[in-house]
Specification:
single chain, alpha/beta, 2 domains, eight-stranded mixed beta sheet, two-stranded antiparallel ribbon, 8 helices, 10 strands, Glycine/betaine/sarcosine/D-proline reductase family selenoprotein B, oxidoreductase activity, acting on X-H and Y-H to form an X-Y bond, with a disulfide as acceptor
Length: 312
């Protein structure tokens, strides 16, 4: 067995330089906060799969996001903002793909330490899709993109949100969809939406920075970028990274041989993989910080509950 020095001499990566296990990390984190009822993630054995019916140059595609429209009256959102439950949305929304939109991510699970949340093109690649259509890489962009709520309730996602997104996609003649995830629950919600679309004949690819969750749920296609959460569409302020990420997603739509196909982006976030050890890692947090986070989580939970009830 090689020592760490021998491993480095052989060119091996650091032991921690591997995809973060977000399901296990999240479970340990909430146990450390005092919650002893671990979340049960959606999990399927069978996965629907719809091959593209025609070349991408003739295909109408849409974008599905979990980012929220900016609401000036709902407190801090965007760069530097803490988790803001008041800014969440609980019903499917749609937007005109010919217009500009200010969509932000204030999810509880975004990596706020290692990424800036400044460049929305890292999580909302609408401009890149428009460019791909203009260059002839895609046949057409659907008239609308859609916002998918990030519900912890899988039943609500499966019975309400996913069917509504499917209905809107069918109205727009959508033939393929890119679903861009942000927080861990986003990855689950969009995986469930992707399964619904795929079962109805719409080819999908989930873009995510958490590999374990979509693979556990069971999705047709996953483009995995080993970046901090919130950057599934490419590195911030890096147009080439964003362009390559979209191209990889399109190639995956074209070439996936069957369900459960995962393609990992070759892009590397940073030379030092230590950032992977910070996210929701109770072992790196002192007791007083865990207590503060528990109180903060309880406040956010109550706000989210009030918001959710107000939409019923």
């Amino acid at each position: 067995m090689s020592t760490s020095e021998e491993a480095r001499a052989l060119g091996f990566a650091a032991p921690d330089d591997q995809p973060v296990g977000y399901m296990a990390r999240t479970r340990a984190y909430y146990l450390a906060l005092g919650y002893d009822n671990p979340y049960v993630w959606a999990h399927y054995r069978e996965v629907p799969f719809t091959p593209l019916a025609k070349p991408l140059t003739e295909t109408r595609i849409t974008l599905i996001t979990t980012a929220a429209p900016y609401q000036p009256d709902k407190g801090p959102q965007g760069p530097g903002a803490p988790y803001n439950a008041a800014a969440k949305f609980y019903q499917v929304y749609s937007g005109d793909t010919t217009q500009e939109h200010d969509l932000r991510i204030a999810h509880v699970g975004i990596d706020r330490r290692h990424t800036s949340m400044e460049d929305s093109r890292s999580w909302f690649p609408l401009a890149a899709l428009r460019q791909a259509v203009a260059e002839g890489r895609l046949g057409a962009l659907a008239a609308r993109f859609h916002g998918a709520p990030t519900n912890r309730s899988q039943r609500h996602t499966l019975e309400v949100d996913a069917p509504e997104i499917l209905r809107r996609c069918q109205e727009d003649g959508v033939e393929a969809a890119l679903l861009v995830a942000n927080c861990p629950i986003c990855h689950q919600s969009l995986s469930l939406v992707a399964r619904t679309l795929e079962a109805a004949g719409i080819a999908t690819v989930v873009l995510g920075c958490a590999k374990d969750i979509p693979e556990y749920v069971g999705v047709p296609r996953l483009l995995f970028s080993d970046f901090p959460l919130g950057n599934a569409a490419g590195k911030p302020h890096d147009p080439e990274s964003q362009r390559l990420t979209l191209e990889l997603a399109l190639r995956l739509l074209e070439s996936a041989p069957g369900p459960r196909t995962t393609l990992q982006s070759p892009l590397i976030w940073a030379d030092d993989p230590d950032w992977k050890l910070d996210y929701a890692n109770a072992e790196r947090l002192p007791a007083e910080e865990l207590e503060r986070l528990r109180a903060e989580n309880e406040r956010a939970r109550l706000i989210a509950r009030e918001q959710r009830l107000a939409t019923v």
